[in-house]
Amino acid sequence: MPAIERLDGPRGARIYRLPMRVYTGLEANAYVVVDGAYQALIDTGSGLPESDEDLAAGFEALRGDGVSWESLDRIIVTHGHIDHYGGLDYLRARTQAPVAIHAYDRRVIEQPHEHHTAVGRELERFFAEAGLDPAQIGEAMALYHTPHQRVLGIPAEAVLADGDLLDGRFQVVHAPGHCAGQVCLQLGDLLFSADHILPETFPHLAPESTAPWTGVAHYLAALDRVEALPGVRLTLPGHGAPIADLAGRIAQLRTSHLRKLERVQAARAEARTLVEITRLVYPRLRPYHALLALEKVGAYIEYLG
Ligand SMILES: [Zn+2]
Ligand SMILES: [Zn+2]
Questions:
Q1: Ligand 2 centre distance from Cα of residue 83 (Å)
Q2: Residue 272 Cα to ligand 1 middle (Å)
Q3: pLDDT, mean of residues 285-293
Q4: I need a surface site. Which of 58, 88, 139, 190 has the fewest CB within 10 A?
Q5: How is residue 15 annotated by DSSP?
Q6: Any idea which ligand is nearest the CA of 79?
Q7: Edge-to-edge strand ranges of the sheet holding 165-166
Q8: How many CB atoms lie within 10 A of CB 85?
Q9: Quick one: average pLDDT of 138-156?
Q10: Domain coordinates in residue numbering, the chain
């Protein structure tokens, strides 16, 4: 089990970072925020057994600090990706705490199957246009469908928008690009950046043609907006350790963006289809990552116009 980290929040609030094994080889964070009598859980893990186990072990370890399923006042889902909302079913059986999610990702948790089918259709079209052959599209779609089959619909009790002050505490910053309904949450001098700003990796981006409010242009605009937030001392991401230097990390992300832009531009001069361009940019990727790369390069080609 990954170790829990305790952090100090504003006005004596306590924050606990609970890392969970969400997939093989990938950890994601849930955060418990204890602010006076108020308790919130930010993100839920993937809902896979190891992820639920780690979340439960985290709550068990915090019992001595007065944290329990029953005392939760709020669950916030930072965005509609399975490694952040997949634990909702597990949680719903244990707490009635109302769920908050941005309006653009509401359907992901309320009607997951309809949403998943709709996104699947767009992806299939995108893969065909990118130049994958039918057998490869079949394999790609099988990969897309596997991790989603368990999730039931959960109603969103609070639907978030940019500028909201949720529960009188969390300043909601809409940060689309990685995901349509991606939000960052500012609590005093802390910023919960979810997958918008990660310490180790550049967030995955797909072309907006496959899903509105995703893609490179939205992502970059949202980076600017987060950079302009006043008074952020510590940034708490959806994966990995806290980020002490937010401005520095944003600068690195911009550099990495420009490098990618150059590589895609160079590859585009030599190749025709998106599949060929992606192979030039990412020559050694295994199947699932190759599909993510295809989306990423597609997002860049769209951005370049
Ligand atoms: Zn994500
Ligand atoms: Zn994630």
A1: 5
A2: 30
A3: 78
A4: 139
A5: E
A6: 1
A7: 165-166, 170-174, 183-187, 190-194, 234-237
A8: 27
A9: 80
A10: 5-304
CA 185 to chain centre: 13
Element housing 234 (H / E): strand 234-237
Average pLDDT over residues 5-12: 96
Please give the Cα distance from 197 to 232 (Å, whole number). 13
* pLDDT value at 148 more than 70: no
| pLDDT level of residue 136 (50, 70, 90 thresholds) | confident
Q: Cα 277 to chain center, whole Å?
A: 26
Are the CB atoms for 45 and 30 separated by under 8 Å? Answer: yes
Both structure tokens of 103: 């309006």
CA 29 to ligand 1 centroid distance, Å: 12
Classify residue 305 by its DSSP letter.
-
Distance from C-alpha of 187 to C-alpha of 208, rounded to nearest angstrom? 30
Distance of CA 140 to the CA centre of its chain: 21
CATH superfamily of 5-304: Ribonuclease Z/Hydroxyacylglutathione hydrolase-like (3.60.15.10)
Residue type, 146: T
Strand partners, 183: 174
Residue tagged 């030039």 (tokens): 280
Query: CA–CA separation, 129 vs 139, rounded Å?
Result: 16
Q: 154 C-alpha to center of ligand 2: Å?
A: 19
Strand partners, 18: 30
Question: Residue 150 pLDDT more than 80?
Answer: no
- Segment 211-260, tens digit of pLDDT: 999 999 999 999 999 999 999 999 999 999 999 999 999 999 999 999 99
